[in-house]
Design goal:
This protein has one domain (3-27, 59-134). It is mainly α. The chain is built from six helices and no strands.
Length: 137
């Protein structure tokens, strides 16, 4: 497979697999850290109207979903990419960061969570995934 094909596959695979990991963690999060009573995690309107009921522990799983999903996607992109492995890992982090910024506007959360999530879950995890993906084993 030529370099360009591998690089395209790296981006597509990183985005798809990272998104799947993110969504799987979000889907099981309610079982690990139960939401406040009467909050429906599958309904955006319920989340918006109930966000004030969430404690810090309720933000742990979304943060982990964002961080681990980005890390896995970036690692996979770096492993697959035929060249510029770190660039493709950071590209995955950039795509997920854009999604995170969109979520901050769509689903208001406490400022502290937005800062921590946007600052630590995306580009740092992409950087880590890229560094690990560049290593020769």
């Amino acid at each position: 497979m030529n370099t360009i094909s591998r690089n395209i596959l790296a981006v597509v695979a990183g985005l798809v697999v990272g998104s799947v990991v993110n969504m799987l963690i979000i889907m099981v999060s309610g079982y690990i850290v139960p939401p406040p009573p009467s909050v429906d995690l599958s309904d955006a309107e319920s989340l918006k109207s109930s966000m004030h009921l969430f404690g810090p522990i309720n933000f742990l799983m979304p943060f982990l979903a964002h961080a681990i999903g980005t890390f896995v996607g970036a690692l996979l992109a770096a492993l697959i990419a035929g060249s510029h492995k770190m660039l493709f890992a950071l590209m995955i982090g950039g795509f997920f960061l854009i999604g995170g910024v969109m979520m901050v506007f769509m689903l208001p959360s406490p400022l502290w969570f937005s800062v921590v999530d946007l600052g630590l879950a995306y580009l740092p995890m992409a950087l880590l995934g890229g560094k690990l993906g560049k290593r020769k084993f």
